[in-house]
Amino acid sequence: xxxxxxxxxxxxxxxxxxxxxxxxxxxxxxxxxxxxxxxxxxxxxxxxxxxxxxxxxxxxxxxxxxxxxxxxxxxxxxxxxxxxxxxxxxxxxxxxxxxxxxxxxxxxxxxxxxxxxxxxxxxxxxxxxxxxxxxxxxxxxxxxxxxxxxxxxxxxxxxxxxxxxxxxxxxxxxxxxxxxxxxxxxxxxxxxxxxxxxxxxxxxxxxxxxxxxxxxxxxxxxxxxxxxxxxxxxxxxxxxxxxxxxxxxxxxxxxxxxxxxxxxxxxxxxxxxxxxxxxxxxxxxxxxxxxxxxxxxxxxxxxxxxxxxxxxxxxxxxxxxxxxxxxxxxxxxxxxxxxxxx
Amino acid sequence: xxxxxxxxxxxxxxxxxxxxxxxxxxxxxxxxxxxxxxxxxxxxxxxxxxxxxxxxxxxxxxxxxxxxxxxxxxxxxxxxxxxxxxxxxxxxxxxxxxxxxxxxxxxxxxxxxxxxxxxxxxxxxxxxxxxxxxxxxxxxxxxxxxxxxxxxxxxxxxxxxxxxxxxxxxxxxxxxxxxxxxxxxxxxxxxxxxxxxxxxxxxxxxxxxxxxxxxxxxxxxxxxxxxxxxxxxxxxxxxxxxxxxxxxxxxxxxxxxxxxxxxxxxxxxxxxxxxxxxxxxxxxxxxxxxxxxxxxxxxxxxxxxxxxxxxxxxxxxxxxxxxxxxxxxxxxxxxxxxxxxxxxxxxxxxxxxxxxxxxxxxxxxxxxxxxxxxxxxxxxxxxxxxxxxxxxxxxxxxxxxxxxxxxxxxxxxxxxxxxxxxxxxxxxxxxxxxxxxxxxxxxxxxxxxxxxx
Lengths: 342, 453
Hints:
heterodimer, A: alpha/beta, D-Maltodextrin-Binding Protein, domain 2, 10-stranded mixed sheet, B: mainly alpha, 3-stranded antiparallel sheet, 20 helices, signal (chain A), Substrate-binding domain-containing protein (chain A)
């Protein structure tokens, strides 16, 4: 009998609570795991200094973040989506279809992508061409397109150490993979003349590009679907492996990893800012303008994120590994004016 | 081997003449050997699982013990009025405009003064090394204190501040002079300085209650990260599960076991309950997102939603053992109750249910323990997130964002700073202690109330 009463009252509590779901106090952020550490640093300092609750920051990848972002407008949808690549047209269309029309695009800075091996291993001086010849499924040998059989790094470039080819690269769900393919493999394909050879062998432009970025599947290029901690664990268990990392991750683990140069340039916030180091990408977050004024503290948080104190070259984000944006002032102005994407 | 069947009659024939009980014949020997082998397999199976358990526990304990100890630095901080209260009117509202970043500068000066006071001069020690001795959390700590007591501005106040993650790691053996050589976030000189300060008693490593009280912290301050929000979030969710799943589950089991007619419909229900118990938990997360957040409009990341999702997941896991416990009560008890004139309901509530209680309680606690360790269903409802604000008190706190213990483990293992690995192992230890307590309680309740016939 008391059980019955208990059940009824419990159900009443749920019913009451469902209707009385109070207005949301805190900002909801989701998206890229690359932007996550920066967003949490800003959220933490924002919570300490402003009279607003600390924003809730989720991760899960750029794609899923933007998908959630585009679900609609209202308190039950997120306010900000972090992205390690610009929003795609298809995603914009999905947004528009769900009524998410006024979107502010905020670029917070740049992130470098680095190649690192175990700290005890040899020094590597890569070129994009070496990466292409090491990992591509098809390579050009003596003017002919053949399957890639290179087993050691010194086979693709005699200057590289004699170490077996084993690369841990980000899986296809990561935004980092896209940058890796475009700025390293594709660049190497063109640089080594393989692109021309592919076209000469009878492929059209698209097929040649496809051939450039198709990686070998004989176990020498290993996709990592988890995050950088998984890549690090794989390198620790197979010391001949080479991993692809974000600059900030590498800088927090310099005691375990040794970074390789690209075209002779060592990655650092300086070389990335100056453009000498070629493999970098901008990081963004997207804000729903309709939520500004509805969710308290949203405008303040966005302005705080891109302020000189945080995103500037001496701020905590740069200290953590973000390459600060030379055009930060323009971003700050756009944020203050709540400029939306066209 | 092939002639085994043939040899049997000869065996029988052989046995007759020397049929002594003291002398084992070939077949008895074979049987005994088979039994011995079987026992050996059993012992080997147990040994393998024990080794796995010991290795697992040893890894977690050695990795996570450090999370329960933390290094602090005691420094006098001169609260410079010019920086902290530029208007000079000691008005907390005005002073709140001074950000923690400015407090960081005040603290940098304080650390440098402490190093100078002890006359510590180490070759190659940079100013950055000195400033990074202490955690960035310290500036928030000092700011909170100053805003609470504005009259402190202008005075010199002693603060017990957290040291940086690498310094803390050095005193726990995680960071060594060799690794510091290559580490861009510390240097051997910095560690040497820390050692000097520790020798002078300024820097101490002590038990870290704050690990159980502090909220999560960003990647830059692993030393300040704690389980406070996660423990509270898990507690709220378990409360929701307890309040909902137990009465609903027990009521459903009693009806199905004692009152429901045995027909096709109850058969279908029974099959469905068993099926639900085996559904992967992430499916309940998808259901929770659709039903509680998108349809009912409950807030994201809230323990109420987590609790409701875990309730759905736990229900079949409570119903099945509860029904088994009810079934185990001998029918003679029911017959006797009915025989002396009790109604069906009286016989159930006065006689059957009390006898089934130990079984029900055990099932309930094990169901809760399972719910406590779940991460997957929470992934989709926004609880796997960076959450730093402590949720409010009951009942409104159920609607505030909160994290959960297994979620915190998952989050920390993904952070780049190696200090978070230690925290994650520490969180696993806390989770294991909770689970152990619940399981011990379940066993104790069963032992105490169990009755045998």
